[in-house]
Amino acid sequence: MRLAGITVWTAAPGEYGAAAGKILPALLSSGTDVSEELAIGEQLLRAAPRSLLDLLTRVVLCIVTFLIGAKVISLIRKLIGKAMERTGAAGQAGQFVDSCVRVVLYAVLVLQIAMHLGINAATIATVLGSATVTVGLAFQGSLKNCIGGIMIMILHPFRVGDYIIESTYDSEGTVTEITVFYTKLATLDNRTILLPNGPLADAGITNVTREENRRVELKVGISYEADIRQAKRVLEKLVLREERIRRELGYDIFVDDLGASSVVLGLRFWTRTEDYWPVRWEMLEEIKYAFDENGIGIPYPQMDVHVSCAESGGKEKMQS
Questions:
Q1: Residue 319 has pLDDT above 80, yes or no
Q2: Domain 214-293: which topology?
Q3: Distance separating alpha carbons of residues 217 and 222, to the nearest angstrom
Q4: What CATH number matches the domain at 150-207, 2.30.30.60, 1.20.120.140, 3.40.50.720, 2.60.120.200?
Q5: With left for phi above 0 and alpha for psi between -120 and 50, is residue 190 left, alpha or beta?
Q6: pTM over 0.70
Q7: Which GO terms describe its molecular function (predicted)?
C-alpha cells in the first residue's frame, strides 16, 4: 500500500514490528506533517489486531488440540491396559508397554502442535528419527532383552514356580523371578542362574511342570530264567497298591527289550506332577523288594567264557 507518498509493503503477521521500524524513520526523513504520521500509525494499529488475533487463534487451537489429544491418549492407554490384563501381562510388562505407548503418542501430539505453530514438521521428524536410531544402536542388546521379556510375559511359555529346561545355555531350574530384562532360575543344588530374556525368548524351552499330570516310565531287567508273567503280576500289584498313581488314566506293563543278559520289562503310569519324583523313587525301591521276595532275579551284566582244549602242536587253545 502507499501512505503519504511512501510505498509500504504489507508485512506478514509476525513482522509488523519490523515494518513499523522501517516506516517511521522514512516518515521523519520525508518531512511529512503530523497528520500524515497519525494516519500511518492508525493504519498500523488497524493491522496489528489481525496479527494478534491470528496468534491467539493458533494458541487456542494448540490448547484444544493438546486437551483432545490427551483424552484420546488416555483412552488408548486404558484399552491397551485392559488387553494386557486379559493376556495376564499386567505386571512389569504392562507398565513398560504403557510407558512406551505414552511416550510415542505424546511425541506425535507435540509434533502436531508444532505444525499448528508453523514449525517445520520435517525438521522435527528428522531429529527424532536420528535420535531414535542412535539410542537403538547404543542399547541394542538391552532392547532385545526388553522385547524378549515382554514376549515372555505376554505369551507365558513359563511362569514363576515352573521347572524349565532351556537349550541356549543348557540350563534348568525352577523359575523364581521374571523381569523385563532377565529371568532368574533356582537349580536343585541351590544355585541362582540369571538368563537374558532376548536369547531365552528365542530358545527351545521344555516346561516340565506346566501340566497337571506327568507320566512315569520305569525299566527293570529280570533274568532269562525268571517267569515273565509272574514278574508282570508283581509289578501290577505294586501299581494297584500305590495311591498316588492315577490308575484312571491307564498304565502299561510290557516287555521292552531282550537284552544281552536280561529281559527288560517296562512300566508306565501317570501321577501328579508334584508327586513325580517321590513316586518314581519309591516305586523303584518297592520293585527291588518285591522281586527279592518272589525270587525274581535282577541280573547284572556278565559274560560267559567257554574254554575248549585241543591238541595242536602240543599246545592248548583257549577261546572266549
A1: no
A2: Alpha-Beta Plaits (3.30.70)
A3: 17
A4: 2.30.30.60
A5: left
A6: no
A7: mechanosensitive monoatomic ion channel activity
